[in-house]
Write a structure and sequence with these properties.
Layout: H1 3-6, H2 19-28, H3 58-74, H4 79-103, H5 108-127, H6 133-143, H7 146-159
Helix pairs in contact: 3-4, 4-5, 5-6, 6-7
Length: about 160
């Protein structure tokens, strides 16, 4: 990054997950032009004890808050960007509920809250060809409630 793009941008240390996404979102909002390189040059190391692979907890709630913040900020932009913000929130909700289903603990009230928040995003999410088929299937099971969603998550894990 050019130094002038980073001036005044804070790396949110209060976020343990998605802090890099929020940082990049801030920086990308300052650029005049950007270059996309389709080469895969980023290698992500999965660690078994990382926050991404632990029981559902506060850091997962913060993920949804981060996605909400980005969605809200994109809502005043073009329809395409507003839809992307909704897609990010929908995917994040599905992912954190997947963690809840796989690792526990189950929070019935929070699951209902996330499902209600997902409901207005569902149609665009299911019709978006950029969303992988597996995510769209997850969205359908998610809409059926926690017992069905947890069963589907566990069956997929067995197959993997």
């Amino acid at each position: 990054y050019r130094r002038e793009l980073l001036e005044g941008v804070e790396f949110r240390r209060d976020r343990k997950i998605l802090e890099d996404l929020l940082f990049n979102f801030e920086v990308f909002g300052r650029v005049n032009r950007m270059v996309f390189c389709p080469a895969a040059s980023y290698h992500y190391i999965q660690r078994g004890q990382s926050a991404m692979h632990r029981a559902f907890g506060e850091e997962h709630r913060v993920m949804v808050e981060t996605a909400r913040e980005i969605r809200d900020r994109l809502s005043g932009e073009s329809q395409e960007l507003a839809d992307a913000g909704g897609g990010l929130l929908a995917t994040t909700i599905l992912w954190v509920c997947d963690v809840m289903a796989e690792y526990g603990p189950y929070d019935a009230e929070l699951f209902r809250t996330y499902r209600a928040e997902f409901r207005p995003l569902r149609k665009k999410y299911l019709l978006n060809s950029r969303v992988p088929l597996s995510y769209r299937a997850s969205a359908i099971f998610f809409s059926m409630g926690f017992p069905v969603f947890r069963f589907a998550v566990r069956q997929v894990r067995k197959l993997m």
